[in-house]
Amino acid sequence: MEYEITPEQKSFFDKNGYLILRNILSKDQAKDLQRWAQEVHDLPRTEETPWMPYEEINASGKRVLCRTENYANYHQDFNRLLRGPRLLSILGQLADEEMLLFKEKINYKLAGSGGFAPHIDSTAYTHVKNIKHLTILLAVDASNMANGGLEVVEGSHVMDVPIDRSDNCIEKSWVGKQTWVPVELEAGELLIFGSYLAHRSGANTSSSDRKAIYATYNCKSEGDLHDEYYEDRAKLWPPTHKRVQGQRYEEGSLRYGFGSPMLSVDMGKQFVA
User: Fold this and answer.
1) Phi, then psi, of 197 in degrees rounded to 5
2) pLDDT tens digits along 64-85
3) How far apart (Å, rounded) are the C-alpha atoms in residues 200 and 175?
4) Is residue 266, in this structure, part of any structural domain at all?
5) Which range marks the domain in which residue 32 is found?
6) Strand ranges of the sheet holding 181-183, from the earlier edge strand across to the other edge
7) pTM of the prediction?
8) CATH number of the CATH domain containing 79
């Protein structure tokens, strides 16, 4: 079933760069989402598996799974959801044209896991095409400031946000001058934002784990870029278990790992945003 965006919602999105929709999934559907996310979390990790799990080092110094990417092609339920008419209709109305799935990930922000430094997503995508994207955050579990929920700068998608090219994150002088708005979501609720919106998240200082689905979409007129994106990512920033000992992945780190807890594996300690 398609979802109709109201003129007021469209106006808010255009002005602020993001939109929250709270009535997307029923309680039963939210429970399905939690089950599917755990299934992806538990997928085997071998040299042959095409999905892409990544680890981080948590506050206790342990290596834990923090993300899985490139799973929609291999999980029938997620494929139907992320490429289904309900989400695509929402994104099409906000973008004013049809959209295609570009990339997808599940972030596992386990208790004690690290946060993400302030950044904009577009920095990671320009090697494929210099295009604008829309991203959804679908909360698998409740997301709030205690467990490292997202914060955004309203209207930053139309600002000249300065990027520190040494780490591809937002310059600290700009970060400190902004008002960061918490985005708190219950399980099954949806956030949509563009690739130029400034956002960040803190560490999970609560005693509870949480998962969140992020899926990014590009305009259909620009072509299906999903597999091309993951081919490049697999070469430059492979899953943790597929990395060659002694090999350095500086280009992939700067392109795909900037500001994220994934950097902690190479650093040997928890990344501090």
Assistant:
1) -85, 130
2) 999 999 999 999 999 999 999 9
3) 10
4) no
5) 7-261
6) 116-119, 199-201, 150-152, 181-183
7) 0.94
8) 2.60.120.620
